[in-house]
Amino acid sequence: MDGANHSVVSEFVFLGLSNSWEIQLVLFVFSSMFYVASMLGNSLIVLTVTSDPHLHSPMYFLLANLSFIDLGISSVITPKMIYDLFRKHKVISFGGCIAQIFFIHLIGGVEMLLLTAMAFDRYVAICKPLHYFSIMNPKLCILLQVAAWIIGLIHSVFQLVFVIKLPFCGPNVLDSFYCDLPRFIKLACIDSYRLEFMVTANSGFISLGSFFILIISYIFILITAQKHSSGGSFKALSTLSTHIMVVILFFGPCIFVYTWPHPKSHLDKFLAILDGVLTPFLNPVIYTLRNKEMKMAMRRVCSHLLVYRRIS
Ligand SMILES: *[C@@H]1O[C@H](CO)[C@@H](O)[C@H](O)[C@H]1NC(C)=O
Known about the structure:
- The chain has helices spanning 21-51, 58-84, 94-127, 132-135, 138-163, 181-187, 193-228, 231-259, 267-288, 292-311; strands at 11-14, 90-93, 173-174.
- The protein is mostly helical.
- The chain has one domain (11-311): Rhodopsin 7-helix transmembrane proteins (Rhopdopsin 7-helix transmembrane proteins, Up-down Bundle).
- Strands 2-1-3 form a three-stranded mixed beta sheet.
- It is globular and about 60 Å long.
- The model is unreliable at 1-7 (pLDDT under 50).
- Bound molecules: 2-acetamido-2-deoxy-beta-D-glucopyranose.
- 2-acetamido-2-deoxy-beta-D-glucopyranose (NAG) is lined by residues 46, 49-50, 61, 64-65, 68, 141-142, 145.
């Protein structure tokens, strides 16, 4: 050590989730299982929707795009977390840390906007069924998706611009298993109060805002569906209740992580597992297992795959 007190931090050390061997083992088994299952499930959805012309409608395209995003969500945090679980010295390079923050906010932002687009799609389908195909035309469908990516990108870059030049002069231990802004900012050698406020305002507000918009629109759709028909409303109700479940599961941890003022507690770490490991797995389960059309299409894709393998 040259003793200079402006030494540059080139890597960060994670404390991980827990020191207990048993908890680590449980985490290892469950995370690996959920990770593999969500990669398989989401890949199968993307493959099924893109290869089956019966499913070329806005709802399924949005679903396939959500699955595509979920492949990304699970891959930003989970593999590194699993790899680190039993290592004594868990480190991540400065660049790796910045990359994690960038992708978490990009993918998280896009996922929130896609969920909103899916709510809009259901709104049109249930409240304006006669105009569904003229409103949700392919152009609008693509426009919604492009908009989701652009807004997600702006959101992520906007946050990074503020933190990428932060001075780090020594402390480099993150009490977590991945890099994200609330704890990252606290390590910088500045008075981080204003930055913390910016993060809470930006990420907290976006997640809280879209959460309330989503919940309100779902309530609106439910009320409309109830008024219109009695037979259709039951089906609408069961579809919507699953959507609402996904929304709560996904947004709950986000809102907590960004608006909870005391990152000293360990609760946010375990909640982050929900978003990183569990939601990407649950989305395909929730959206497809209750959908007959999707299940049949998946069966077709699987049998095709098997036939191809037998031929080659
Ligand atoms: C996303 O949706 C578009 C249509 O809007 C579709 O063409 C594309 O295949 C979808 N992407 C994936 C990965 O399924």
